Amino acid sequence: MGYFNCEYTKENGFVPSKFHQLLWPKEASGNKVNGLGETEKHRPVQSYHKHHPFYPFGLAEQWFIHKCMANFKIANWYFKHWITENVTRLGKIVNERQHDTPENWTKKIKELALEDDDVHVVGICRMKEEWVYEDREIPRGEWVIILGRRMEYDEFSKNIKGDFVSQCREVIKSYVMGQTTGYRVASWIRKQGYYSSFKGGLSDDHSFTVVPAAIDAGLGQLGKHGNLISDVLGSAFRLTPVLTDMPLITDEARDIGVDDFCGTCQLCARDCPADAITHEKHMVNGDLKWYVDFDKCVPAFNELYACGICLAVCPWSRPGVAPSLTQKMLRRRERKSAETS
Length: 341
Ligand code: B12
Ligand code: SF4
Ligand code: SF4
Hints:
The strands form four sheets. This protein has a four-stranded antiparallel β-sheet with strand order 3-4-8-5, sandwiched between helices. It has a two-stranded antiparallel sheet with strand order 1-2. The protein has a two-stranded antiparallel ribbon with strand order 6-7. The protein is built from 13 helices and ten strands. The chain starts with 6 loop residues before the first strand and ends with a helix. The chain has one domain (19-336). The longest helix is centred in the middle third of the chain and has 28 residues, at 164-191. It is an alpha+beta fold. Residues 223-225, 261-262, 265, 267-268, 313-316 line the site of one iron/sulfur cluster (SF4).
Protein backbone atom coordinates (compact mmCIF):
# COMPACT_ATOMS: atom_id res chain seq x y z
CA MET A 1 0.00 0.00 0.00
CA GLY A 2 1.31 3.44 -0.96
CA TYR A 3 0.47 6.89 0.27
CA PHE A 4 -1.82 7.59 -2.70
CA ASN A 5 -2.26 4.08 -4.08
CA CYS A 6 -4.50 1.46 -2.60
CA GLU A 7 -3.62 -2.19 -2.71
CA TYR A 8 -5.90 -4.69 -4.38
CA THR A 9 -5.37 -8.25 -5.49
CA LYS A 10 -8.00 -10.93 -5.85
CA GLU A 11 -6.07 -13.13 -3.41
CA ASN A 12 -5.31 -10.58 -0.67
CA GLY A 13 -8.31 -8.29 -1.05
CA PHE A 14 -8.38 -4.51 -0.74
CA VAL A 15 -6.46 -2.12 1.50
CA PRO A 16 -7.17 1.62 1.14
CA SER A 17 -4.28 4.04 0.55
CA LYS A 18 -2.85 5.91 3.53
CA PHE A 19 -4.27 9.13 2.10
CA HIS A 20 -7.79 7.69 1.94
CA GLN A 21 -7.44 6.42 5.50
CA LEU A 22 -6.54 9.96 6.52
CA LEU A 23 -9.65 11.38 4.82
CA TRP A 24 -12.00 8.72 6.21
CA PRO A 25 -13.95 9.90 9.31
CA LYS A 26 -12.98 8.08 12.51
CA GLU A 27 -16.35 8.29 14.27
CA ALA A 28 -19.02 8.31 11.54
CA SER A 29 -20.70 5.18 10.16
CA GLY A 30 -22.68 5.12 6.92
CA ASN A 31 -24.47 2.01 8.17
CA LYS A 32 -25.83 4.05 11.06
CA VAL A 33 -26.92 6.82 8.66
CA ASN A 34 -28.71 4.23 6.49
CA GLY A 35 -30.57 2.88 9.54
CA LEU A 36 -28.96 -0.57 9.83
CA GLY A 37 -30.72 -2.41 12.66
CA GLU A 38 -33.60 0.10 12.85
CA THR A 39 -37.06 -1.45 12.80
CA GLU A 40 -39.02 1.83 12.65
CA LYS A 41 -39.35 3.25 9.15
CA HIS A 42 -38.38 6.88 8.57
CA ARG A 43 -37.46 8.92 5.52
CA PRO A 44 -33.92 8.07 4.35
CA VAL A 45 -30.92 10.26 5.04
CA GLN A 46 -28.63 10.94 2.09
CA SER A 47 -25.49 9.07 3.07
CA TYR A 48 -23.25 9.77 0.09
CA HIS A 49 -22.77 11.65 -3.20
CA LYS A 50 -23.54 15.04 -1.73
CA HIS A 51 -20.88 16.52 -4.03
CA HIS A 52 -19.42 18.83 -1.40
CA PRO A 53 -16.76 18.25 1.26
CA PHE A 54 -18.79 19.35 4.31
CA TYR A 55 -20.28 16.12 5.58
CA PRO A 56 -18.55 13.16 7.24
CA PHE A 57 -17.67 11.34 4.00
CA GLY A 58 -17.23 14.54 1.97
CA LEU A 59 -13.43 14.61 1.84
CA ALA A 60 -13.25 10.98 0.81
CA GLU A 61 -15.85 11.67 -1.89
CA GLN A 62 -13.80 14.62 -3.17
CA TRP A 63 -10.81 12.29 -3.48
CA PHE A 64 -12.93 9.94 -5.62
CA ILE A 65 -14.17 12.77 -7.86
CA HIS A 66 -10.70 14.26 -8.33
CA LYS A 67 -9.19 10.87 -9.09
CA CYS A 68 -11.78 10.36 -11.84
CA MET A 69 -11.33 13.89 -13.18
CA ALA A 70 -7.60 13.36 -13.43
CA ASN A 71 -8.12 10.45 -15.79
CA PHE A 72 -8.71 11.61 -19.35
CA LYS A 73 -10.76 8.56 -20.40
CA ILE A 74 -13.28 9.28 -17.64
CA ALA A 75 -13.06 13.09 -17.55
CA ASN A 76 -14.06 13.13 -21.18
CA TRP A 77 -17.51 11.75 -20.33
CA TYR A 78 -17.77 13.88 -17.18
CA PHE A 79 -17.27 16.89 -19.43
CA LYS A 80 -19.99 15.71 -21.84
CA HIS A 81 -22.31 15.30 -18.87
CA TRP A 82 -21.50 18.76 -17.57
CA ILE A 83 -22.09 20.33 -21.01
CA THR A 84 -25.43 18.52 -21.44
CA GLU A 85 -26.56 19.56 -17.97
CA ASN A 86 -25.59 23.18 -18.41
CA VAL A 87 -26.64 23.69 -22.03
CA THR A 88 -29.86 21.68 -22.25
CA ARG A 89 -33.03 23.42 -21.12
CA LEU A 90 -36.33 21.69 -20.44
CA GLY A 91 -38.30 24.54 -21.93
CA LYS A 92 -41.44 26.24 -20.61
CA ILE A 93 -44.61 24.34 -19.81
CA VAL A 94 -46.91 25.44 -22.62
CA ASN A 95 -50.11 27.12 -21.49
CA GLU A 96 -52.52 25.21 -23.65
CA ARG A 97 -52.75 21.73 -22.19
CA GLN A 98 -53.24 18.77 -24.55
CA HIS A 99 -55.72 16.11 -23.45
CA ASP A 100 -55.52 12.37 -23.91
CA THR A 101 -56.21 9.22 -21.88
CA PRO A 102 -53.62 8.03 -19.32
CA GLU A 103 -53.28 4.85 -21.43
CA ASN A 104 -52.32 6.85 -24.52
CA TRP A 105 -49.94 9.18 -22.65
CA THR A 106 -48.22 6.14 -21.13
CA LYS A 107 -47.87 4.45 -24.51
CA LYS A 108 -46.45 7.61 -26.10
CA ILE A 109 -43.96 8.22 -23.29
CA LYS A 110 -42.67 4.67 -23.34
CA GLU A 111 -42.28 4.75 -27.12
CA LEU A 112 -40.52 8.10 -26.95
CA ALA A 113 -38.12 6.95 -24.23
CA LEU A 114 -37.09 3.81 -26.10
CA GLU A 115 -36.91 5.48 -29.51
CA ASP A 116 -33.17 6.25 -29.62
CA ASP A 117 -31.98 3.04 -27.98
CA ASP A 118 -30.12 5.10 -25.35
CA VAL A 119 -32.32 3.60 -22.66
CA HIS A 120 -33.63 0.07 -22.83
CA VAL A 121 -36.42 -0.31 -20.25
CA VAL A 122 -39.05 2.08 -18.86
CA GLY A 123 -41.35 1.72 -15.88
CA ILE A 124 -43.78 4.04 -14.12
CA CYS A 125 -44.79 4.30 -10.47
CA ARG A 126 -46.36 6.81 -8.08
CA MET A 127 -44.04 8.94 -5.97
CA LYS A 128 -43.86 7.97 -2.28
CA GLU A 129 -42.77 10.31 0.48
CA GLU A 130 -40.90 7.50 2.19
CA TRP A 131 -38.24 7.58 -0.60
CA VAL A 132 -37.45 11.28 -0.25
CA TYR A 133 -34.35 12.20 1.81
CA GLU A 134 -35.45 13.71 5.08
CA ASP A 135 -33.80 17.09 4.48
CA ARG A 136 -35.38 17.52 1.02
CA GLU A 137 -38.74 18.90 0.02
CA ILE A 138 -41.21 16.40 -1.36
CA PRO A 139 -40.69 16.95 -5.10
CA ARG A 140 -43.55 18.03 -7.33
CA GLY A 141 -44.89 15.38 -9.71
CA GLU A 142 -47.08 12.50 -8.70
CA TRP A 143 -45.70 10.09 -11.29
CA VAL A 144 -42.12 8.85 -11.62
CA ILE A 145 -40.94 7.59 -15.00
CA ILE A 146 -37.89 5.42 -14.48
CA LEU A 147 -35.53 4.93 -17.40
CA GLY A 148 -33.04 2.04 -17.35
CA ARG A 149 -29.90 2.05 -19.47
CA ARG A 150 -27.91 -1.16 -20.02
CA MET A 151 -24.16 -0.71 -19.47
CA GLU A 152 -22.12 -2.47 -22.18
CA TYR A 153 -21.06 -5.68 -20.52
CA ASP A 154 -17.76 -6.05 -22.39
CA GLU A 155 -16.63 -2.62 -21.19
CA PHE A 156 -18.15 -2.77 -17.72
CA SER A 157 -16.78 -6.22 -16.90
CA LYS A 158 -13.18 -5.21 -17.61
CA ASN A 159 -13.06 -4.46 -13.87
CA ILE A 160 -12.94 -8.22 -13.25
CA LYS A 161 -9.51 -8.18 -14.90
CA GLY A 162 -8.44 -5.09 -12.95
CA ASP A 163 -9.33 -2.40 -15.53
CA PHE A 164 -11.53 -0.20 -13.34
CA VAL A 165 -11.09 2.87 -15.53
CA SER A 166 -12.95 1.32 -18.50
CA GLN A 167 -15.73 0.25 -16.14
CA CYS A 168 -15.99 3.77 -14.73
CA ARG A 169 -16.05 5.30 -18.21
CA GLU A 170 -18.98 3.01 -19.08
CA VAL A 171 -20.75 4.17 -15.89
CA ILE A 172 -20.38 7.87 -16.77
CA LYS A 173 -21.25 7.24 -20.41
CA SER A 174 -24.46 5.52 -19.30
CA TYR A 175 -25.33 8.49 -17.13
CA VAL A 176 -24.91 10.77 -20.15
CA MET A 177 -27.12 8.56 -22.35
CA GLY A 178 -29.83 8.32 -19.66
CA GLN A 179 -29.53 12.06 -19.16
CA THR A 180 -30.06 12.74 -22.87
CA THR A 181 -33.25 10.67 -22.90
CA GLY A 182 -34.38 12.17 -19.58
CA TYR A 183 -34.21 15.67 -21.00
CA ARG A 184 -35.99 14.58 -24.18
CA VAL A 185 -38.88 12.94 -22.32
CA ALA A 186 -39.23 15.77 -19.77
CA SER A 187 -39.18 18.44 -22.52
CA TRP A 188 -41.82 16.61 -24.55
CA ILE A 189 -44.11 16.42 -21.51
CA ARG A 190 -43.79 20.19 -21.01
CA LYS A 191 -44.78 20.76 -24.63
CA GLN A 192 -48.02 18.90 -23.88
CA GLY A 193 -48.74 21.41 -21.10
CA TYR A 194 -47.81 19.28 -18.07
CA TYR A 195 -45.23 19.77 -15.35
CA SER A 196 -42.06 17.66 -15.57
CA SER A 197 -38.67 17.81 -13.90
CA PHE A 198 -35.37 16.17 -14.59
CA LYS A 199 -32.28 16.66 -12.48
CA GLY A 200 -29.59 15.29 -14.76
CA GLY A 201 -28.06 11.91 -14.20
CA LEU A 202 -24.55 11.92 -12.82
CA SER A 203 -25.20 14.57 -10.21
CA ASP A 204 -27.44 11.88 -8.67
CA ASP A 205 -29.27 14.79 -7.11
CA HIS A 206 -32.62 13.09 -7.43
CA SER A 207 -33.63 14.09 -3.90
CA PHE A 208 -34.88 10.56 -3.40
CA THR A 209 -33.59 7.03 -3.40
CA VAL A 210 -34.35 5.56 -6.81
CA VAL A 211 -34.07 1.78 -6.34
CA PRO A 212 -37.35 1.27 -4.41
CA ALA A 213 -39.12 3.45 -6.99
CA ALA A 214 -37.73 1.25 -9.78
CA ILE A 215 -38.97 -1.82 -7.91
CA ASP A 216 -42.49 -0.31 -7.74
CA ALA A 217 -42.18 0.56 -11.43
CA GLY A 218 -41.78 -3.16 -12.17
CA LEU A 219 -38.17 -2.95 -13.34
CA GLY A 220 -36.83 -5.71 -11.12
CA GLN A 221 -35.92 -6.94 -7.65
CA LEU A 222 -33.16 -6.22 -5.15
CA GLY A 223 -30.24 -8.68 -5.37
CA LYS A 224 -27.78 -9.73 -2.70
CA HIS A 225 -25.38 -7.09 -4.06
CA GLY A 226 -27.83 -4.37 -2.97
CA ASN A 227 -28.77 -3.32 -6.50
CA LEU A 228 -31.67 -4.00 -8.78
CA ILE A 229 -31.74 -7.09 -10.99
CA SER A 230 -33.94 -6.78 -14.07
CA ASP A 231 -35.45 -9.65 -16.05
CA VAL A 232 -34.42 -7.79 -19.23
CA LEU A 233 -31.08 -6.13 -18.42
CA GLY A 234 -29.65 -8.20 -15.56
CA SER A 235 -27.70 -6.13 -12.99
CA ALA A 236 -25.38 -3.91 -15.01
CA PHE A 237 -27.64 -0.97 -15.77
CA ARG A 238 -28.30 2.58 -14.55
CA LEU A 239 -31.49 4.32 -13.54
CA THR A 240 -32.70 7.80 -14.42
CA PRO A 241 -35.97 9.23 -13.04
CA VAL A 242 -38.24 11.86 -14.60
CA LEU A 243 -41.08 13.35 -12.51
CA THR A 244 -44.37 14.59 -13.92
CA ASP A 245 -47.99 15.41 -13.15
CA MET A 246 -49.17 14.05 -16.52
CA PRO A 247 -51.68 11.30 -15.62
CA LEU A 248 -50.11 7.93 -16.37
CA ILE A 249 -50.77 4.23 -15.84
CA THR A 250 -48.40 2.72 -13.30
CA ASP A 251 -46.60 -0.60 -13.59
CA GLU A 252 -46.48 -3.12 -10.75
CA ALA A 253 -43.70 -4.61 -8.67
CA ARG A 254 -42.88 -8.12 -9.92
CA ASP A 255 -41.30 -11.21 -8.46
CA ILE A 256 -38.82 -12.54 -11.03
CA GLY A 257 -37.18 -15.17 -8.82
CA VAL A 258 -34.16 -13.12 -7.67
CA ASP A 259 -34.50 -14.08 -4.00
CA ASP A 260 -34.45 -17.80 -4.80
CA PHE A 261 -31.36 -17.41 -6.98
CA CYS A 262 -29.45 -15.15 -4.57
CA GLY A 263 -30.24 -17.58 -1.76
CA THR A 264 -27.75 -20.07 -3.17
CA CYS A 265 -25.45 -17.99 -5.41
CA GLN A 266 -22.36 -16.57 -3.71
CA LEU A 267 -20.48 -14.83 -6.50
CA CYS A 268 -20.82 -11.14 -5.57
CA ALA A 269 -20.03 -11.82 -1.91
CA ARG A 270 -17.05 -13.98 -2.84
CA ASP A 271 -15.52 -11.46 -5.26
CA CYS A 272 -16.26 -8.16 -3.48
CA PRO A 273 -12.80 -6.70 -2.78
CA ALA A 274 -14.01 -5.16 0.49
CA ASP A 275 -15.95 -8.12 1.85
CA ALA A 276 -18.99 -5.83 2.08
CA ILE A 277 -21.69 -8.30 0.97
CA THR A 278 -23.25 -10.79 3.36
CA HIS A 279 -25.38 -13.89 2.78
CA GLU A 280 -28.20 -12.80 5.09
CA LYS A 281 -30.83 -10.14 4.79
CA HIS A 282 -30.71 -7.32 7.35
CA MET A 283 -33.26 -5.04 8.99
CA VAL A 284 -32.54 -1.57 7.57
CA ASN A 285 -34.78 1.41 8.17
CA GLY A 286 -37.86 -0.77 8.70
CA ASP A 287 -37.25 -3.12 5.74
CA LEU A 288 -35.78 -6.61 5.84
CA LYS A 289 -33.55 -6.66 2.75
CA TRP A 290 -30.20 -7.53 1.25
CA TYR A 291 -27.79 -4.87 2.50
CA VAL A 292 -24.26 -3.86 1.52
CA ASP A 293 -21.94 -2.65 4.30
CA PHE A 294 -21.45 1.05 3.50
CA ASP A 295 -18.32 1.48 5.64
CA LYS A 296 -16.57 -1.37 3.84
CA CYS A 297 -17.83 -0.69 0.30
CA VAL A 298 -17.27 3.08 0.01
CA PRO A 299 -13.46 3.11 0.43
CA ALA A 300 -13.15 0.46 -2.32
CA PHE A 301 -15.68 2.35 -4.48
CA ASN A 302 -13.63 5.55 -4.05
CA GLU A 303 -10.27 4.06 -4.82
CA LEU A 304 -11.22 1.57 -7.53
CA TYR A 305 -13.00 4.09 -9.78
CA ALA A 306 -16.52 3.13 -8.62
CA CYS A 307 -15.52 -0.57 -8.39
CA GLY A 308 -18.70 -2.33 -9.59
CA ILE A 309 -17.21 -5.85 -9.31
CA CYS A 310 -20.44 -7.07 -7.67
CA LEU A 311 -22.51 -6.17 -10.75
CA ALA A 312 -19.94 -7.50 -13.23
CA VAL A 313 -19.66 -10.98 -11.66
CA CYS A 314 -23.42 -11.36 -11.18
CA PRO A 315 -24.63 -14.15 -13.53
CA TRP A 316 -27.73 -12.09 -14.46
CA SER A 317 -25.46 -9.40 -15.99
CA ARG A 318 -24.10 -11.54 -18.81
CA PRO A 319 -25.70 -10.51 -22.12
CA GLY A 320 -28.87 -12.46 -22.90
CA VAL A 321 -28.92 -14.38 -19.62
CA ALA A 322 -31.53 -12.41 -17.61
CA PRO A 323 -34.69 -13.29 -19.61
CA SER A 324 -33.96 -17.03 -19.71
CA LEU A 325 -32.81 -17.13 -16.08
CA THR A 326 -36.05 -15.45 -15.04
CA GLN A 327 -38.10 -18.04 -16.94
CA LYS A 328 -36.08 -20.84 -15.38
CA MET A 329 -36.53 -19.51 -11.85
CA LEU A 330 -40.28 -18.99 -12.30
CA ARG A 331 -40.72 -22.49 -13.81
CA ARG A 332 -38.74 -24.01 -10.94
CA ARG A 333 -40.97 -22.23 -8.43
CA GLU A 334 -44.13 -23.46 -10.18
CA ARG A 335 -42.80 -27.03 -10.13
CA LYS A 336 -42.02 -26.81 -6.42
CA SER A 337 -45.41 -25.45 -5.49
CA ALA A 338 -47.10 -28.14 -7.63
CA GLU A 339 -45.05 -30.80 -5.79
CA THR A 340 -45.95 -29.46 -2.34
CA SER A 341 -49.64 -29.14 -3.14
C1 B12 B 1 -25.30 6.72 -2.37
C2 B12 B 1 -25.18 5.72 -3.50
C3 B12 B 1 -24.10 4.82 -3.46
C4 B12 B 1 -23.12 4.77 -2.30
C5 B12 B 1 -23.72 4.21 -1.02
C6 B12 B 1 -24.82 3.17 -1.22
C7 B12 B 1 -25.58 2.87 0.06
N1 B12 B 1 -26.20 1.71 0.09
O1 B12 B 1 -25.64 3.61 0.98
C8 B12 B 1 -21.97 3.92 -2.89
C9 B12 B 1 -20.85 4.87 -3.24
C10 B12 B 1 -21.41 2.79 -2.02
C11 B12 B 1 -22.60 3.34 -4.14
C12 B12 B 1 -22.02 2.32 -4.84
C13 B12 B 1 -22.55 1.74 -5.97
N2 B12 B 1 -23.60 2.18 -6.67
CO1 B12 B 1 -24.78 3.58 -6.02
N3 B12 B 1 -25.99 4.93 -5.58
C14 B12 B 1 -26.11 5.72 -4.55
C15 B12 B 1 -27.33 6.66 -4.72
C16 B12 B 1 -26.83 8.03 -5.16
C17 B12 B 1 -28.22 6.82 -3.47
C18 B12 B 1 -28.58 5.50 -2.77
C19 B12 B 1 -29.09 5.75 -1.39
O2 B12 B 1 -29.99 6.58 -1.20
N4 B12 B 1 -28.52 5.07 -0.38
C20 B12 B 1 -28.89 5.27 1.00
C21 B12 B 1 -29.80 4.14 1.57
C22 B12 B 1 -31.19 4.27 1.04
O3 B12 B 1 -29.14 2.94 1.26
P1 B12 B 1 -29.69 1.46 1.56
O4 B12 B 1 -30.59 1.46 2.70
O5 B12 B 1 -28.50 0.56 1.56
O6 B12 B 1 -30.60 1.20 0.24
C23 B12 B 1 -30.05 0.68 -0.96
C24 B12 B 1 -30.94 -0.47 -1.46
O7 B12 B 1 -31.37 -1.31 -0.45
C25 B12 B 1 -32.06 0.29 -2.15
N5 B12 B 1 -33.21 0.63 -1.30
C26 B12 B 1 -33.41 1.82 -0.68
N6 B12 B 1 -34.56 1.81 -0.03
C27 B12 B 1 -35.13 0.60 -0.23
C28 B12 B 1 -36.35 0.08 0.20
C29 B12 B 1 -36.69 -1.24 -0.16
C30 B12 B 1 -38.00 -1.81 0.29
C31 B12 B 1 -35.80 -2.03 -0.94
C32 B12 B 1 -36.14 -3.45 -1.29
C33 B12 B 1 -34.58 -1.48 -1.38
C34 B12 B 1 -34.27 -0.17 -1.03
O8 B12 B 1 -31.46 1.51 -2.60
C35 B12 B 1 -30.18 1.73 -2.03
C36 B12 B 1 -29.16 1.58 -3.15
O9 B12 B 1 -27.84 1.62 -2.69
C37 B12 B 1 -28.13 5.90 -5.85
C38 B12 B 1 -28.95 6.84 -6.78
C39 B12 B 1 -30.21 7.27 -6.07
N7 B12 B 1 -30.47 8.55 -6.01
O10 B12 B 1 -30.94 6.43 -5.55
C40 B12 B 1 -27.02 5.15 -6.59
C41 B12 B 1 -27.33 3.76 -7.19
C42 B12 B 1 -28.11 2.96 -6.17
N8 B12 B 1 -26.01 3.16 -7.36
C43 B12 B 1 -25.94 2.39 -8.38
C44 B12 B 1 -24.79 1.59 -8.72
C45 B12 B 1 -24.87 0.81 -10.01
C46 B12 B 1 -23.69 1.52 -7.88
C47 B12 B 1 -22.39 0.71 -8.07
C48 B12 B 1 -22.47 -0.64 -8.75
C49 B12 B 1 -21.31 1.59 -8.75
C50 B12 B 1 -20.99 1.29 -10.20
N9 B12 B 1 -19.76 1.02 -10.51
O11 B12 B 1 -21.85 1.34 -11.04
C51 B12 B 1 -21.95 0.51 -6.58
C52 B12 B 1 -22.57 -0.75 -5.96
C53 B12 B 1 -22.44 -0.80 -4.47
C54 B12 B 1 -23.45 -1.74 -3.87
N10 B12 B 1 -23.17 -3.03 -3.95
O12 B12 B 1 -24.52 -1.31 -3.41
C55 B12 B 1 -27.23 2.43 -9.21
C56 B12 B 1 -28.01 1.12 -9.06
C57 B12 B 1 -28.60 0.61 -10.36
C58 B12 B 1 -29.21 -0.75 -10.14
N11 B12 B 1 -28.97 -1.69 -11.05
O13 B12 B 1 -29.90 -0.97 -9.17
C59 B12 B 1 -27.93 3.71 -8.65
C60 B12 B 1 -29.45 3.64 -8.64
C61 B12 B 1 -27.42 4.90 -9.50
C62 B12 B 1 -28.14 5.06 -10.83
N12 B12 B 1 -28.63 6.26 -11.08
O14 B12 B 1 -28.27 4.15 -11.60
N13 B12 B 1 -23.76 3.94 -4.46
S1 SF4 C 1 -18.98 -1.84 -5.40
FE1 SF4 C 1 -19.69 -3.93 -4.99
S2 SF4 C 1 -17.88 -5.22 -5.24
FE2 SF4 C 1 -17.14 -3.10 -5.04
S3 SF4 C 1 -16.71 -2.87 -2.86
FE3 SF4 C 1 -18.81 -2.16 -3.16
S4 SF4 C 1 -20.10 -3.97 -2.78
FE4 SF4 C 1 -17.98 -4.69 -3.06
S1 SF4 D 1 -23.97 -12.44 -7.88
FE1 SF4 D 1 -25.38 -14.05 -7.27
S2 SF4 D 1 -25.89 -13.60 -5.12
FE2 SF4 D 1 -24.99 -11.77 -6.00
S3 SF4 D 1 -26.74 -10.57 -6.68
FE3 SF4 D 1 -26.04 -11.75 -8.45
S4 SF4 D 1 -27.30 -13.60 -8.37
FE4 SF4 D 1 -27.48 -12.63 -6.37
